[in-house]
Design a protein that fits this description.
CATH superfamily: RelE-like
Largest sheet: 5 strands, mixed
Shape: globular
CATH architecture: 2-Layer Sandwich
Structural class: alpha+beta
CATH class: Alpha Beta
Number of domains: 1
Strand content: 25-35%
Number of helices: 2
Order of helices and strands: EHHEEEE
């Protein structure tokens, strides 16, 4: 059964401001999270049991997995050189 994908307001704002090709590339990866939230290229963040990161080109997507509710919540979408690990 696929997971529900929620995108935090701040992450949605960043996504909508991205150029078309970058947006589509990140969207393809986000779509994969619905079927398999723990993608091979995703990494669990140290010190945070519930947070994962996914690198998509120059961008990093930080997301949270709730297996009980079957929900993946995208918290941040930022360039890799920006601070991405603060709570929204």
């Amino acid at each position: 059964m696929p997971y529900e994908l929620l995108v935090h307001r701040e992450a949605r704002k960043v996504l909508l401001e991205l150029p078309g090709e970058i947006y589509r590339r990140i969207y393809r990866h986000l779509s994969k999270l619905k079927q398999q939230p723990r993608l091979r290229q995703a990494a669990k963040l140290k010190g945070r049991e519930d947070l994962w990161r996914l690198r998509v080109g120059r961008y990093r997507v930080i997301y949270q997995i709730d297996d009980l509710k079957q929900v993946v919540t995208v918290l941040h979408v930022r360039l890799r050189n920006e601070r991405t690990y603060r709570a929204p």
